Description:
By secondary structure, the chain is an alpha/beta fold. Helices cover 39% and strands 13% of the residues. It has helices at 22-38, 44-52, 57-72, 74-83, 94-108, 113-120, 126-141, 154-160, 164-171, 187-194, 228-235, 254-261, 273-286, 327-330, 333-352, and strands at 177-181, 203-206, 223-225, 244-248, 265-270, 291-294, 306-312, 354-364, 382-383, 403-405, 419-425. The strands form two sheets. Strands 4, 5, 6, 7, 8, 9, 10 and 11 form an eight-stranded mixed beta sheet that branches. Strands 2-1-3 form a three-stranded antiparallel beta sheet, covered by helices on one side. α12 links the parallel β4 (244-248) and β5 (265-270). Residues 1-23 are annotated as: Disordered. It is an enzyme of class 2 (transferase).
Amino acid sequence: xxxxxxxxxxxxxxxxxxxxxxxxxxxxxxxxxxxxxxxxxxxxxxxxxxxxxxxxxxxxxxxxxxxxxxxxxxxxxxxxxxxxxxxxxxxxxxxxxxxxxxxxxxxxxxxxxxxxxxxxxxxxxxxxxxxxxxxxxxxxxxxxxxxxxxxxxxxxxxxxxxxxxxxxxxxxxxxxxxxxxxxxxxxxxxxxxxxxxxxxxxxxxxxxxxxxxxxxxxxxxxxxxxxxxxxxxxxxxxxxxxxxxxxxxxxxxxxxxxxxxxxxxxxxxxxxxxxxxxxxxxxxxxxxxxxxxxxxxxxxxxxxxxxxxxxxxxxxxxxxxxxxxxxxxxxxxxxxxxxxxxxxxxxxxxxxxxxxxxxxxxxxxxxxxxxxxxxxxxxxxxxxxxxxxxxxxxxxxxxxxxxxxxxxxxxxxxxxxxxxxxxxxx
Length: 426
Ligand SMILES: C[S@@+](CC[C@H](N)C(=O)[O-])C[C@H]1O[C@@H](n2cnc3c(N)ncnc32)[C@H](O)[C@@H]1O
């Protein structure tokens, strides 16, 4: 079973309970991050910003890796804990949280048990510390193992239906790093120079773990990081030939860059000014241009119509579960319903801004039917079927003409994020 590469944070065991020891501070941050995700429903990014901001970069990376692996394997870690306790621990009890992160380090990050104990047990006191020590020792003596792939929470498995097993298989593996090349004619050159593989023109796949900013071509903006699935929506609009495109909900701007590079005259709109700043920085780095608009798409009114609109709508982002395993535990029916309602409103508005004969691509990085397959029927545009020739080998359009990707696709080359994409014509 492939394991994530371990960040170079301090794995050595502190010899006392001194809370200032760096190894202990990283584990404390993990505990706060797990609490943020599991108790307060925060994203892992948000929880990390709150809990780990004072840590040195290597310790912060270590804390992120431990929290990610804990959340990815939570169901299996809990089963191990329950198999070694006579009285089940409450779901969010501190002793359970500490045992979860201890087991994730030992079983997923290959941290030696003595280091796990030295940095885990000081998070507890008294009887709880003795209990955690007992459970961890029982499991290391067995020795306990994890299954080949993480077990998905029941509600998630039910929602993802017959794709669930393949997605769980992909969750066990660290996802690769995909890049989109600004000038597609340079794909071969950059693929060779960066030592990657290309699955489509303009696409390069590298093994995970590269320091992106140090790679050749980054500073000159010859490419940007973008999962291959995330690159499909803009590709489906084809060459722009200076026609007008609206990238609605555009930040941090991967699709704005693509549309600009494909020759569209792009208006790039997002409601969050700080996120729009990132679009600006990305445009600057890549030498591409777009008109930036900081506005709420629910109230904004354009001055004219667009030949193309890309609506990469806000969503539950469950399709990014490989990199954000918090979505396995945070997202429930109420989030999906709320997002689906927002997406329907955005789609409805966007449809009115399309010039006659114009094209609208609707996309979400969600694996949920309500946010994907159920959406386009609510507006009066016709589907412009996506063809297999427009997709990477191994990904086929559905008979309805749309595309549903998920992490279990392209299993031999590293998978892809989960997206729903449909192309509609006015
Ligand atoms: C899935 S992300 C977009 C990713 C982006 N298309 C890319 O490729 O980099 C969704 C974006 O929608 C924005 N958003 C959410 N509600 C919005 C609204 N009412 N109006 C405009 N933008 C909105 C968020 O700020 C977020 O940046």
